[in-house]
Amino acid sequence: MGRIVVISTGGTIASRWQGSGFAADAHGQEVMATAAVPEGITVEVVDLFSVNSPRLTTDHQLTLVRTVHEVLADPGVDGVVVTHGTDTLEESAFLVDLYHHDPRPVVFTGAQLPLDAEDGDGPRNLHDALLTAARARDLGVLVAFDGKVHAARGTVKTHTLDADAFADPSGARIADIGFGKVSVLRRPARPAPLPLPGMPEARPRVDMVMHHADGDPVLLEAAVAAGAQGVVLVATGAGNATPEVVAAVAEATARGVLVALTTRVHAGPVSQIYTHGGAVDLVAAGAVPTGTLRAGQARVAVLAAVLATTDPAERVRVLRHALGESVPAAPARV
């Protein structure tokens, strides 16, 4: 069935008791030793790093992107599995997906219970991810968890503790896993991959700010003052805030800061319905609505745009492309 490379990055699936709580400290071979390998699959392990995923940085994530590309440069590799902490799995998977140009799959998985748990979910999830990496093609980057396969785009962690921890709240899953089979239910729409970014000398700052009752522009303005090149506004409802926040967004975008607009609501798209500080006004002020992408993945799309270019208008174009919008190519510079 194939040769699969497992890239180990840490997370609960690699965590053990540290005396006061769990933390990632196991190597990839130890994680692999817990799982049954599907018949016909050979596995190679790359120990990239071993950290709890809330500690991941842009440097970690770009290193992962480049490692995936290096692994897939070998035509003898049939697929890639990434073991990852669940807290930021949705962000890393989407970032890898934005640059993924290969029909061979990259399958992210992890666990809700630690490495040594007698009833742990990691072994089954890893088995299923290996099976998916060997069987799936032309589906982009995937998340295999609790017998289900999800597209990276739109998939978020939906429960803090349950084994069934991932889903796209606004869309259907990609496939089911069972009885040694991967049953594909649909194929995700994906924009053309972005060119692979370089490793920046300084990590670009991209912040998230949430709106709420009594919300004001103080935190958004503080992010800009701190040097944020991009800001994700996590608004209420279908993408609404206040006139004061609109004014702060207009000032930020006038200064070349890339502002994306998402919502704190679980499912559904950002939509331009309301004025008096609503999405109608926020978009007019320069914010880019992110459709059904939620905060973490909206930030990843902004990060990809910031990494792509220093030109503010081009950053908007790259962001819209990453969001899956149909946008014309930028005019050639003379």
Automatic annotation (TrEMBL):
Ranges in a coiled coil: none
Keywords: Hydrolase
Highest taxon above the source species: Bacteria
Residue span(s) of domain L-asparaginase N-terminal: 3-188
GO molecular function, one term: asparaginase activity
Chemical reaction(s) catalysed: L-asparagine + H2O = L-aspartate + NH4(+)
Stated name of the protein: asparaginase
Source organism of the structure: Streptomyces kanasensis
